[in-house]
Specification:
L-aspartate:2-oxoglutarate aminotransferase activity, seven-stranded mixed β-sheet, Aspartate aminotransferase, Asp_trans, Aspartate Aminotransferase, domain 2, single chain, Aspartate Aminotransferase, domain 1, two-stranded parallel ribbon, alpha/beta, binds (2S)-2-hydroxybutanedioic acid, 13 strands
């Protein structure tokens, strides 16, 4: 039956974790996947999560959630994206479902796009998270690209981005990273977001935000929602994928949210029912545990404050590691500029290293990262930053 099946290519991100796990070297370093580690390189369960689990342990059952998931969790999640006192929430203008983290939210949206705008394409930034390509490919939505990153400045290519928005056919779908762009760590400024929003308004484009790192750009989830708020002020009907993988450290719990702002409550009911219809044959209904953890934290002011403190703590440790990595490289006398390590934000540093240089890091130094040169700063620690800097220096100096 299956002789014709060839092995699938390795995933460019999760394949790195597989290779790391298979390496017996005691010196190995994993700066591949975007998953937070403490300064000892250990995975972290947030204290607010531990506390929420203690609270829910006694009273939870294992019943199915509705197809759209926990509406309690969804409501709290919408407040994070659209604002605590958003009229959109009060007026029930948002169609939203619990999703299997950010990936699941993007996938349900991509299927919805295909079903209800069958001729549309999706414009994806260059570069983007590699899985975005897989998601819209499997949903059979044709992909176009728009320019985003400037390899020379290692910053935003704003002029080209604006040009591409302008030249795309009116009414196109654009995938935007709400904050802490993955993989580049380069976000538009507030002023630039305003111009992007204006241009998209003029062209009647549809903005779909992937917000996988809310809290990791500035250390404050509220501030990291600014792009969404700007677009809303301009009256865009937007879509948004939210994830608690990173900012609550709930990676394996697969908890997130997909929301679509609608014209009115009637439209929102219809859209939500269709989103549920897409979820039902795919996974029926989402898992319950992570949703309970999230709703418990966000609806308890003390736990929410603890969470905000812990998010900031994670973001600050990463910022500290950016400084340390740059300083180490400069102290080694690297002739290259490493300013971008501290200019970029979020979990990742888009180092500018070539695939060949990355291959050398792996084969000679047991350092694992994606071949596009992305370093997950969340995997850098005071214990490995010197080793990492030295290896980077060695492979980039000639
Ligand atoms: C990453 O970019 O490393 C994360 O979003 C994890 C993933 O699923 O790829």
């Amino acid at each position: 039956w299956w002789n014709h099946v060839e092995p699938a290519p390795k995933d460019p991100i999760l394949g790195v974790t597989e290779a790391f796990l298979a390496d017996p070297s005691p010196h190995k370093v994993n700066v591949g996947v975007g998953a937070y580690r403490d300064d000892n390189g250990k995975p972290v369960v947030l204290e607010c999560v531990r506390e929420a689990e203690r609270i829910i342990a006694g009273n939870k059952n294992m019943e199915y959630l509705p197809m759209g998931g926990s509406m309690h969790m969804v409501e709290e999640t919408l407040k994070l994206a659209y604002g605590e006192n958003s009229d959109l929430i009060k007026d029930k203008k948002i169609a939203a479902i619990q999703a299997l983290s950010g990936t699941g939210a993007c996938r349900v949206f991509a299927d919805f796009q295909k079903r209800f705008k069958p001729d549309s394409h999706i414009y994806i930034p260059v570069p983007t998270w590699s899985n975005h390509h897989n998601i819209w490919r499997d949903a059979q939505v044709p992909q176009q690209t728009f320019r985003y990153y400037h390899p020379e400045t290692k910053g935003l290519d704003f002029a080209s981005l604006m040009e591409d928005l302008k030249n795309a056919p009116s009414g196109s779908f654009f995938l935007l990273h709400a904050c802490a762009h993955n993989p580049t760590g380069v976000d538009p400024t507030e002023e630039q977001w305003k111009e992007i929003s204006q241009q998209m308004k003029v062209k009647g484009h549809f903005p779909f935000f992937d917000m996988a790192y809310q809290g990791f750009a500035s250390g404050d989830p509220e501030r990291d929602a600014k792009a969404i708020r700007i677009f809303r002020e301009d009256g865009h009907l937007i879509g948004c994928a939210q994830s608690y993988a990173k900012n609550m450290g709930l990676y394996g719990q697969r908890v997130g949210c997909l929301s679509l702002v609608c014209d009115d409550d009637k439209q929102a009911i219809a859209v939500k029912s269709q989103l549920q219809q897409i979820a039902r044959p795919m996974y029926s209904n989402p898992p319950v545990h992570g949703a309970l953890v999230v709703s418990t934290i966000l609806s308890d002011p003390n736990l929410k404050n603890l969470w905000l403190k812990e998010v900031k703590g994670m973001a600050d440790r990463i910022i500290g590691m950016r400084t340390a990595l740059r300083e180490n490289l400069e102290n080694l006398g690297s002739p290259l500029s490493w300013e971008h390590i501290t200019n970029q934000i979020g979990m990742f540093c888009y180092s500018g290293m070539t695939p060949q240089q990355v291959d050398r890091l792996t084969s000679e130094y047991h350092i694992y990262m994606t071949r596009n040169g992305r370093i997950s700063m969340a995997g850098v620690t005071t214990g490995n930053v010197g080793y990492l800097a030295n290896a980077i220096h060695e492979v980039t100096k000639s």
